[in-house]
Amino acid sequence: MIRGGIILFLWVGALMNSAVAKDTTRIRKITVLPVPTIGYAPETDFYFGAVTLFTLDLYRDSCTRTSNVDLEFNYTLRNQSILETSWNYFFREEKWFTEGLIHGSEYPDLYYGIGAQTREQDEVKFSSTRLNLQVNLYRKLKKSLFLGLGIGATRYTNIKSDSWNLPEELRSGSLTAVRVILLYDSRDRILTPRKGFYFKINSAFNFSQQDYPKIEMDIRKYYTGKSGFTIAGRYYQSWVGNTPPFFDYPVMGGDQIARGYFYGRFRDRALSTIQVEMRTPQLYRTGLALLGGISALSPHFSLGQATYFPNFGIGLRFMADKSETTNLRIDY
After folding, report:
1. 3-state DSSP call for residue 215?
2. Are the C-beta atoms of 117 and 138 separated by less than 8 Å?
3. Binning pLDDT at 50, 70 and 90, where does residue 265 land?
4. What is the rounded distance in angstroms from the CA atom of residue 326 to the CA atom of residue 313?
5. Considering Cα of 255, then 260, then 262, then 266, what sign does the dihedral take?
6. 26, 149, 203, 310: least CB-packed within 10 angstroms?
7. Is the dihedral of CA 227, 233, 85, 88 positive or negative?
8. 8 Å CB contact between 109 and 124
9. What is the dihedral angle through the alpha carbons of 177, 182, 186, 189, rounded to the nearest 10 degrees?
10. What count of other Cβ atoms lies within 10 Å of the Cβ of residue 47?
11. Digit-coded pLDDT (tens) for 48-80
């Protein structure tokens, strides 16, 4: 899992297109993109490893978007080892769709407590063994609209720290989640969309030491003009009730939510964020991206007591797979 700070993919792998099955009208196609990785992030220090991205165009019709699966391993100079696979798979004519994640890691980390007012001197170093399984299955209701059910399981075990002031909530724990999901997805492609609209609301009930609900809403819009510039906007909202395990609070930072902040530096019961990215047309497969946004972190669903955090940055995009417009990136 690659998160936050500066993200650097070093691409020296080969792109391999192969026909895996034939019939009288079409060729079924799998594209394999192996990518050695090296980079730096505040939560990992320097890391290196490899990721292999599989893009699957098995049905070769205009009604079914390309699916993808990735397998990734990274090792960091903080002795963190991370093995992860995730997938987005469309069945024929998108009548069914599944997405999921399997993650395992041995992970030394930093913890600052709950809330937006935590201080740098509150930092606690700890290590843990992490397992995370998420599977969602959707049925198409009509064009671009899906209704889904999901299950999930997360475990943090073997939590260890040399700190004398270890917070009470920083302890081993696990949860099991059941979800009902409404999804609208009209994006032209999954990995690097240029146009379309994405809306997802995820209502979950999590079983843990204290049972609690969790709601996530994710709205994204992509627009590309005649000049070739792409504008991508995102609004994300996450809220948890009761008292979840420390690892299931809404969290800022990393490579997904409010890029530029240490993943886990701030967490609380409610998070709202608006993010915008502008991507330039690519010249010789290389383009630029400007990104920025603002996030609100609050102990309540209302933003009346929220603390606001801005973020901004610049990035470099390199198109590794021209047919699927799959980009590798450097973000600062």
Report:
1. strand
2. no
3. very high
4. 21
5. negative
6. 310
7. negative
8. no
9. 10
10. 22
11. 999 999 999 888 888 899 999 999 999 998 888
